[in-house]
Amino acid sequence: MPAQYTSLSDIVKSEAFGTYVNKDSIEKNPLFQAGLVEADPDFAAAIARNGGTTHQTVLVPNMADLDGDAQDLVDGTAITSDKLETVAEQLPAIGKAKSFAFYDSTTDLTGADPARRIASQFGAYWSRQNKRFILSALKGAFGVSGMSDNILDVSGENNPVLSNDYIQAAFQLLGDNKDILTTILCHSAVALRLKNIGTSEYVQNQKDGEMKIAAYQGKRILEDDHLAADSQGVYPVFILGPGALVMNALPCEKEYEPVREATYSRTSVISRKRYVLGPRGFAYTVPNDRAVAANGATNAELENSSNWSLAWEAKRIPLVKLLCKVA
Questions:
Q1: Distances (CA, A) of 220 to 29, 217, 309, 315
Q2: Where are the domains of the chain?
């Protein structure tokens, strides 16, 4: 006999909850706070043009930088025109869901209100998950052959331990465009190494004037222990600039849904999310073997570099990767 479901709108209103989780998941995410991830207006416009029905990817065409030598002015000689080159960024859609359940006995025995507690914590939960999705996309993007010039691998050097010289060399990968890099994203062990070699400091957060943030020569340091060392003790260190990554919300049917299974005395609280996500300057291609029913890219697909290609010149992309050790 199928379970009978009853709405729990008397506990938490669906619309209000969805708005709260969206805002909370952004406000709690340090990548958003640092300006590295943005809800990009170009992608928002593309989503709107599609009526919000984006299923697999979002395409944003752009005009390439003007190039070519200027022509000398000569009387009697016509000025020739070059054609405008275009580039197209295309980023993947992702669809994710999470459900937490509890039995009535939880409330009966403790007097707690698990539904409200779950609802209040979903913002922080999605903030943590969003970072994982972003790191998966970075892993795939840096595997593209054209991004090799944006990677400094010192793990094979006689002294592969992180140093001031290596950090400066990583910034220099973008040449005269290096000033667009503002933030170092690394494991806490790497952040400690920066502190130990005397380059880490704390500067005032300009937004609230109270909380101090770690910085390397004015460049913000963000710690994330998902950026762990490999079996050889080599850590990935990402250096990014503002707007390096895009994360725009996509319409999602029943983004929040409390479900009552009365015959089991059980309640589930479900949250669903859909985004377009990825680094600027890339084009993502949906793999041929993806199931038709899939609502977007999996983490494994995001990490697969064969699904990515460059849309911009690598030097224009505010992303650099350093591979090093800390001891």
A1: 15, 8, 29, 21
A2: 5-70+83-324
- pLDDT score of 173: 97
For residue 247, what pLDDT band results from cuts at 50, 70 and 90?
A: very high
CA 28 to the chain's CA centroid: 14
CB 92 within 8 A of CB 295: no
- 3-class state of residue 75 by DSSP: coil
Handedness of CA 79, 81, 82, 84 (dihedral sign): positive
| CA–CA gap between residue 125 and residue 274 (Å, rounded) | 15
Tokens of 231: 């079996």
Intra-chain end-to-end CA distance of the chain, in Å: 61
Alpha carbon 175 to chain centroid, angstroms:
25
| Model confidence at 5: pLDDT above 60 | no
Long-range contacts of 204-207 (CB under 8 A, 24+ apart): 207/33
What phi and psi values does residue 227 have, to the nearest 5 degrees? -90, 60
- 3 state SS of 122: helix
State the Cα–Cα distance between residues 191 and 161, nearest whole angstrom. Answer: 13
Q: How far apart are CA 220 and CA 186, in angstroms?
A: 11
For CA atoms 191, 194, 200, 206, give the dihedral sign: negative
CA distance 89 to 145: 17
